[in-house]
# Entry
Amino acid sequence: MPAQISSNSERLDGIDVLRGLAILLVMLNHVNMRLFMAKVPYTAGLPNQLVSSLVWNGQRGVQIFFAVSGFLITSVTLRRWSPLAQINVRAFYRIRFARIAPLLLMLLAVLTMLDLWHVPDFVISPKTGGLSHALLAALTFHINVLEAWHGYLPANWDILWSLSVEEVFYLFFPLLCWMLGRSKPLIAVLCLFVVLGPFARSVFSAGNEVWYEYSYLGGMDAIALGCLTALLVSSKEFSRQTRSFLTIVGLATLTASLCLSLRINALGLKQNGLDMTILAAGACMIIAVAAQSRWRSPIFLMPIVRLGQRSYEIYLTHMFIVFALFHLFLNAGKPLSAVLPLFMGTIILAGILGEVVARYYSEPVNRILRAAPTVRY
# Structure
């Protein structure tokens, strides 16, 4: 009997913990970047690996997001349309639009006004093409390409690179399902994305630092692994022993990837692009166990779970909090005693902002768009 995957209304705590961990890593990294550029020596005397694990793992956090995204989208698709060859491509795009577009469009509107008002930290440099090029890139999902060719955009724009990777993948995903169904060719295509990921981060990046991190194929291996995990979990019920094995190996892989990153780099896994694929594979093991075991989070992890549940809203809005608190920190004279409150305040306030945005804007608009009658031509 195929394993059940949670219904739309049911949350999987294990997956929300992963998403919470991912958004936490991203926020810590972005606060650290501001401190690093301001030359605040707050990490002086700390072990290099500890510093790397705590505040330089933002890219790994995004890779976890990609794996979770691939699993969730494929799981929802399987619940709505099974076999996959019967997928309603138009409905798939509509559901995806309802989830992604409202907050993205609101964010772009706010960023446009801030650029036009010449607000510091939000003004787009002419060398990257200015506001018009940034808007076009954001709306057509090639922010990553723009930055690889012309340099980084302001941080609030820069975070949209990951959305570019995801949405290009999901542009073709329903078409692949419709053409190939749940067949071996579909699995082969997804495996091809997994194989190409390390090459994209090494050979194909051709020394371009931005493209190394932001390329399409460099993120699609994690998304494809998430898709493959959903296909496997929906067709095979794991034994308790298998779930225990996956839990141990998955946690060990995640722990090593996040806490021993410098050692992994020394082994050459970053140089050949395998480090991120291994991280995504470890995340997918945890995802598979969470989907079948219905693991419930202990109370002390509930703040992480809640961050995970609001991760999309937090991801798109947290830089406003980062900049606001960081400028307060600068105006106070950059006291080292305020560094920890800066990190903690960012996490707490970004979580609150994400909750408010989700509850009073993105979720209501999402429901309205999904409930709207389909126009027939």
Observations:
- The two ends are 40 Å apart (CA to CA).
- The chain has a mean pLDDT of 94.
- The CA atoms of residues 255 and 344 lie 23 Å apart.
